[in-house]
Predict the structure.
Amino acid sequence: MTTAGTTATTPPHGPLTGVRVVELAGIGPGPFAAMLLADLGADVVRVDRPDGPGLAIDPAHDVTNRNKRSVIVDLKAPDGAARVLDLAERADVLIEGYRPGVAERLGVGPGACHARNARLVYGRMTGWGQDGPLAPRAGHDISYIALTGTLGMIGTPDAPPAVPANLLGDFAGGSLYLVVGVLAALHHARATGSGQVVDAAIVDGASHLSAMIHGMLAAGGWQDRRGANLLDGGCPFYGTYETADGGHMAVGALEPQFYDVFMELLGIPGKAPARDDTARWSELREAIAARFKARTRDEWTAVFEDSDACVAPVLSLREAPHHPHLAARGTFTDHAGITQPAPAPRFSATPTAVRTGPARPGADTDAVARDWDVPRLLTSPRNPQ
């Protein structure tokens, strides 16, 4: 494995210190996967395009580019591919998120990269995958989770499926599976000296996430329709309820002992239908909803605090960092004026941290050229800022 150069601004930190990663700039799951590797200590060099980022966001606020360094390379220039191949030759991992065939046409596909570095782990992040009828087609998170059946599980039965932002497809089914694949392939490369291609498709990952549900479906313990099951909001003691002030409380009192505490603190024990009488679940839901509407979110939070009722307030993005538990754990951190989730998970011997803010396009060209010994980068386009 190569040894990454470091600078005063990016000290070694995390279990992946010493791992070099090349990220070909894209949007969504690819950058997030590279951020995870960077958070874990890898030296991630993002190859940005001369025409700027793909998202309409100030690069200074794009936290998916934290803990990285950036160079600018025009892959359409005559010598653009050669610059990327110089980096790939010195890297352990490369991540790209183009449509199938694009990297090959640009001269930086797996064949070209492995010809220079047989140990390279080549990670490919797409929605549809590298093959199949839809592989060449455009799509977004919502398209991919729609076909896998996961989108159809979310929401109430009397309304269209609810959109879970892009967390379920892009980041859970995409980024996390790419990182798992890359780390597994990296382990193999270290043991054998042989790299490989990791084909991470959001349709595969999102489908894989529903493995338990498919088992329940096969066993007759899950109905293939929305809002009719234990974990999809169909169960009255596993869902959300509005409070008097328009806030919401989340209830997850599945086990009988937790349900008993929940009903006692809610104030309706013995006055509602039995929890196991599914025919009267709608009646039980109405009773619970009426009780929650009697007090504000903060009042109910105080009632259930320090209990095992499995009830929590539904917080907004801006509220979450201030919750006492998350604050005590340091689940969120402030860096360069941006409140953001801290790296996860946590390591006892190789702690991680937000070491640097979002990489500015092209700002690290000189340092990367020196640390990775790639002088050709010095003739690349520079950051226009």
In short: The two ends are 35 Å apart (CA to CA). Residues 1-10 have pLDDT under 50 and may be disordered.
